[in-house]
Amino acid sequence: MTAQTNLSAMHRVTANRLGPRSAMAYKSAGMYRLLTWNDYRRRADEIAVGLVSLGIVPGDRVAMISENRTEWLFSDIGMLAAGAVTVPLHAPLSPKQVEYQLHHSDSRGVFVSNQVQANKVLEVIDRVPNLEFIVSFDPIDTKGRIKTLTLSALRQIGFQAGAEGLKQVLDRESSTKPDDLATIIYTSGTTGLPKGVMLSHGNLLYNTECVYKVSSISGYDHFLSWLPFSHIYARVIDHFLSVMAGAIMYLAESIDTLPRNLVETQPTAMSAVPRFYEKIWAMLEVLPKEMRNQKLRQLFGMRIDRLSAGGAPLPKHIAEGFLEAGLTIYEGYGMTESGCALTSNRPGENKPGTVGKPIPGMDVAIAPDGEVITRGPHIMKGYWKNLEATQETIIDGWLHTGDVGEFDSDGYLKITDRKKDIFVTSGGKNISPAELERALTEDVYIEQAVVYGDGKNFITAMLIPNPQHLAPKLKELNATLDSDGEFATDPKLMAFLSERVAAAMAAFSKPERVKAFLIRKAPFTVESDELTVSLKVRRRFVMNKYKEQFEAFYKGAPPGDLHEDQ
């Protein structure tokens, strides 16, 4: 375990050690601007002193709603240095979701990036009685409804407090213990209200150090970071890991500019979710192998050494395709409740199609019912103000992940599904929807899929076509995606995709095969709550949203001859 007892102390040790060296870079007015570790620490300390001046005491919750920016990082470390508990809210949240998380966490203040995020708070401010102030990265207008400061003004307060103000922060930092609460991260629940995961300084320090020991990341690395810092994956793997290693973090402008930012920054390491790699593969898969490999290398740059994937399963054929191009994607597995990573593939131990071996220092096992369980210093303290859910999730010291998995003969873990997503057909067949969806989306013409059929006599699905690959095929078929409403109905397109679905289902037993499907024209999105912030499909949400359309399949005669399937 690291000698530091809290995250702010870890950051201070690195900042003191590296001082004038570059800590991060961000793009402004078309140019990348560098900030040193001294800059980083000074700004965080000014924010911490400013929070103390606002009356924040250790244990108080302070929320943050912002897209990725340098200010997010300064503010996170500043809050932790002041002894506050950071409550990061995902930037795409609706006002109603913001209201729930601010109110449930009893946050005394909230940091916002701009007027758009401030308006969400202002819309619900009368229903969040504990909220006392807003700090904004950009200037905003709150019409005097709540105490408001810009981040620059807060930092100025901290600067003017001088050595005495800094001494207060250093005293708080030195008294912050590993078991003290560092953050509350709300999970993007697929049903019901989200739960606030309580993670201590010790949870996050332990997880970061365990990952650091197996990652081979060093101070010579250049991270390109684009995943939302409000999610545990980027918070640990990009933010805290780069601090522990003393690496330089380049902030991408957005997911849309990522290809350009890759060329501009030439990183050595980058974290991503499978959806990103799937999109890249979909664009290049149809090219001849040699050309595809060349394009992949050009896209990621000649210095790239480590690509990581987490947050959802990475299709095996994509991992193998990148490997053929000399690009290794190290897939890992974890969850917010486990403080981030539990298993990982790593240099010298990489097996595509798995999420790797348990990270040394973390107990990972398979329960009798197939559920992945874990115990150790990395697991959460519990759910904020939800003892019942905590007791259901942590049993005899073991965190029950809700994921079903298995270890292969070499000790690599494979996640097969979410325990709550496995369903049973009316014929008594257990169905793993994730396995079916993976098989469907391996088809070049199918980008996303959700299967349905709990208690039914056959399986159905909703498919989202890959528009780039489908466009030339539509011309060839003289078919169209155009139709009234959300769903495509062209008979020629339906017939074509029926053949593709049948081919994808050939590896499964007859009761498991998809027998009918809908073709939705628009992809699932985070804004519509159909995807989590890590771009996983919220299967239950989609099934409930389109329950009427799915159920319509079961009102008439079943498709095909199903008597032999029962």
What can you tell me about this protein's structure?
With 566 residues, this protein is an alpha/beta fold. The protein folds into three domains: 7-12 and 37-176, Rossmann fold (3-Layer(aba) Sandwich), CATH 3.40.50.980; 208-372 and 404-419, ANL, N-terminal domain (Rossmann fold); 422-565, ANL, C-terminal domain (GMP Synthetase, Chain A, domain 3, 2-Layer Sandwich), CATH 3.30.300. Helices cover 37% and strands 23% of the residues. It has a nine-stranded mixed beta sheet with strand order 2-1-11-10-12-13-14-15-16, with helices on both faces. Strands 4-3-5-6-7 form a five-stranded parallel beta sheet, with helices on both faces. Strands 17, 18, 20, 21 and 22 form a five-stranded antiparallel beta sheet that branches. Helix 1 (7-18) packs antiparallel against helix 2, helix 1 packs parallel to helix 9 and helix 8 (201-215) crosses helix 9. The longest helix has 17 residues, at 37-53. The protein is globular. Mean pLDDT is 92; it is low at 561-566.
Quick tags:
23% strand, five-stranded parallel beta sheet, 566 residues, nine-stranded mixed beta sheet, 27 strands, disordered C terminus, Rossmann fold, GMP Synthetase, Chain A, domain 3, alpha/beta
Blueprint of the fold:
Layout: H1 7-18, E1 22-28, E2 31-36, H2 37-53, E3 61-65, H3 70-81, E4 85-89, H4 95-105, E5 109-112, H5 115-124, E6 133-136, E7 147-150, H6 151-160, H7 162-175, E8 181-186, E9 196-200, H8 201-215, E10 222-225, H9 232-245, E11 248-251, H10 258-265, E12 269-272, H11 274-284, H12 289-300, E13 306-309, H13 316-324, E14 329-335, E15 340-344, E16 357-358, E17 363-366, E18 371-375, E19 382-383, H14 387-393, E20 394-395, E21 398-407, E22 413-418, E23 423-424, E24 430-431, H15 433-441, E25 446-452, E26 459-465, H16 467-477, H17 491-505, E27 514-519, H18 539-545, H19 547-551
Parallel strand pairs: 1-11, 3-4, 3-5, 5-6, 6-7, 10-11, 10-12, 12-13, 13-14, 26-27
Antiparallel strand pairs: 1-2, 8-9, 9-19, 14-15, 15-16, 17-18, 18-21, 20-21, 21-22, 23-24, 25-26
Helix pairs in contact: 1-2, 1-3, 1-9, 2-3, 2-6, 2-7, 4-5, 8-9
